[in-house]
């Protein structure tokens, strides 16, 4: 375990308490750091929308994003059960017989995942989504790793709910819906950039995210400008800001 990275991650997630932040970039930081810290093959975040449905908010890879979308489309999978019960859900072998979610298991295995752990994003009785860990091999995640993953999910949940001092669930839903809507623009920008440069979707997202960070802009603003033709070509990398 990289203790320095773990410490930095908690600090970065706590930044929502004191500064304006980009929710989508914040959630991608959560999935990326979860993968790096715990050795998971991929991670994803699904959040509830105002109507009680679920939306994919972030994923560490395109494969994970597609699997998350699949389980939402077919209304079956560990993240949905986790959200509905507010409790962790474990699937240690998606290749075994008598699968609880047969369609999801098949899609996950085809994407290269053999195990899943879904952790609730919950504060007391309020559940806003789930953080999902994907493993390339069958078997459970380490208990200590799951405790850390749940702690990261808890801190992220507190940050989302605490931002702008929100207390009422209706207002929380409006904020999360705005974040989820911005995800659509980001997906459009990823597709446009990937097609233009002949690169995969993960690389396209990394380029967009790096440019947003380096130019001190919100990821959604960069994506929207690119999609609407605010720039004829994708902008060159801006000078990097110094690390804290």
Write the layout of secondary structure elements.
Blueprint: H1 3-14, H2 23-38, E1 42-48, E2 54-59, H3 62-73, H4 78-85, E3 89-91, H5 102-110, E4 115-123, E5 126-135, H6 143-162, H7 169-197, H8 201-214, H9 219-227
Antiparallel strand pairs: 1-2, 1-5, 3-4, 4-5
Helix pairs in contact: 1-2, 1-6, 2-6, 3-5, 7-8, 7-9, 8-9
How does this structure look, described?
This protein is α+β, with helices and mostly antiparallel strands. It has two domains: 3-167, 2-Layer Sandwich (Beta-Lactamase), CATH 3.30.450.40; 181-227, Arc Repressor Mutant, subunit A (Orthogonal Bundle), CATH 1.10.10. It is 53% helix and 14% strand. The protein has nine helices and five strands. β4 (115-123) and β5 (126-135) form a beta hairpin. α1 runs antiparallel to α2 and α3 (62-73) runs antiparallel to α5 (102-110). The chain is globular, with a radius of gyration of 18 Å. The model is unreliable at 236-244 (pLDDT under 50).
Please supply descriptive tags for the structure shown above.
single chain; 244 residues; alpha+beta; Beta-Lactamase; Arc Repressor Mutant, subunit A; 9 helices
**What proportion strand?**
5-15%
Coarse morphology: globular
What is the CATH architecture annotation of the largest domain? 2-Layer Sandwich
Unreliably modeled segments: 236-244
Class of secondary structure makeup: alpha+beta
Q: Could you spell the SSE succession in H and E letters?
A: HHEEHHEHEEHHHH
What is the CATH superfamily label of the largest domain? GAF domain
CATH class of the largest domain equals Alpha Beta
Number of strands: 5
Mean pLDDT: 83
